[in-house]
Amino acid sequence: MPAAAALLALQRAAGNHATGRMLARSPLAPPGPVGEVTAGIPLLDYETKEEARAVREIALGPAAGFAGFETEQEAVVAAGGSERVGVVVADAEGRFHAYETDLEPVWGPLFQRVSNHEIRGGRVVRWTHLDTPGDAASYKDQLRLAHHLAAKPDTQEDGRRLFMNLLQSAVGLDASELHDSTGGAALPGKVSFNLAYEDANAHAGIVGKLPSDRETPLPEPTLEVGPGAFTTLIALRATILHELAHVNHAVMAIEAVNRWRATTTDGNFLTWLAREQKKGRVDAVDFAVIKEEVKGGTENTESLGYLVSFTAAYHLEDLSGLPADDEVIDDKLLFGKLAQLADEWFRADHAVQDHVLEQLVAYRDALDTAHRERFARYVNRKHDRASAVYQLFWGALR
Q1: What pLDDT shows up at residue 105?
Q2: Which residues pair with 47 in a beta bridge?
Q3: Pairing relation of β-strands 96-101 and 131-132?
Q4: What is the per-residue pLDDT for 16?
Q5: In what order do the strands lie in the sheet with 122-128?
Q6: Over the stretch 277-334, which tens digit does the pLDDT of each residue have?
Q7: Which ranges of the chain does DSSP label H, i.e. alpha helix?
């Protein structure tokens, strides 16, 4: 099966699973040994074997009770944010968990094998961040060079290639999961990069309303990022996770329509979907997202997407070198995604609103002291200046 088709099949399977999921899930067992990594340094003819041990789960929000990611690619992007070797584990429910291990990356190519020691209840499917780049240039330096090369016609191809390389070396995606869509179209099942895309940092999902009749061919969701998504490495990972959330929502809705077509012969899709919710086969958040995909709205999927991108990034920002209570830094660097979430939240379905606030409060409570205090000061400032509608959002986070 081609890589794009295989990845789309994974996304479809995740969406089909999500369509009928209930709110409660069983988290993976505590981390333990996850296998051996065999590292070879060619020039020195040196090889070593190390047993990796997972030391912490990398989650969206608090790790306690985190149910995992819908797709392997989301877990890969999250695990790639670790400074140490990461590992992606599939659990018995078909979801994916990202762990940081106790192994430091090694310079040069690495070859890995998984031993019999795996996380209880899970299956190791992928390692991330196995090696450190031979080139000592920082992400910022590489990004500056990519923009410089891409701005000139005679070196534009080199610039595009460097942007693509950053999606591999810095983010952790595999070459088979990437596509250069510059001058062409984004491909389903890929993270596409379009040098000419300037409308926003990225976009994903489907265009327009999802067909909910019985005959119209259903679209395939795509994901495309532009140069604006590469501002910082933390922001780039958060943006990709945000866009993968949109892909998951589109896949979930597509699978719901397919299930309706396969199991019924008459009636309206949304009427059937409401019955599925009433029977407990679709939870309230999923119902709101699927209904929105059919009607062509965006506030529910955007609220959930910004929830992902904020909780994937804020706690990773280094506050030590930033001026305290600098409103420009707060608005542009630290809390921009949270403010965008507020703009979408007040128009979202009540079930989505409740879920977003529940997750944000749990995330806030799990922050370290410095991040929690800066979060509180920002929320208080926004609340005190907000209109009555926005005070509902900011007040719940105080």
Answers
A1: 81
A2: 40
A3: unpaired
A4: 39
A5: 110-113, 33-41, 46-58, 96-101, 86-91, 122-128
A6: 999 999 999 999 999 999 999 999 999 999 999 999 999 999 998 998 899 999 999 9
A7: 3-19, 72-79, 139-150, 156-169, 233-263, 269-278, 284-295, 299-311, 327-329, 336-345, 350-366, 369-385, 388-396
Long-range interactions of 281-288: CB distance < 8 A, separation 24+:
281/19, 281/20, 282/19, 282/20, 282/256, 283/21, 283/22, 283/23, 283/351, 284/349, 284/351, 285/349, 285/351, 285/352, 285/355, 286/18, 286/19, 286/21, 286/252, 287/351, 288/348, 288/349, 288/351, 288/352
Tokens read off for 342: 């507020």
**Rounded distance, CA 40 to CA 47, Å?**
4
Q: Which two tokens stand for residue 176?
A: 């088979």
Q: Which two tokens stand for residue 374?
A: 């800066």
Using CA atoms, how far residue 364 sits from 223, 245, 274, 340, in Å, is: 29, 21, 33, 17
What H or E segment, with its residue span, contains residue 88?
strand 86-91
Q: DSSP secondary structure string, 120-146?
A: TTEEEEEEE--EE-SS---HHHHHHHH
Instruction: Reduce the DSSP state of residue 396 to 3 states and report it.
Output: helix
In this structure, the strands spanning 86-91 and 96-101 are antiparallel
- Residue 92: is its pLDDT beyond 80? yes
- 14 φ/ψ angles, rounded to the nearest 5 degrees: -65, -40
What pTM value is reported for the model? 0.89
Which of the 8 DSSP states describes residue 78?
A: H
Distance in angstroms (rounded) separating the CA atoms of residues 258 and 240: 27
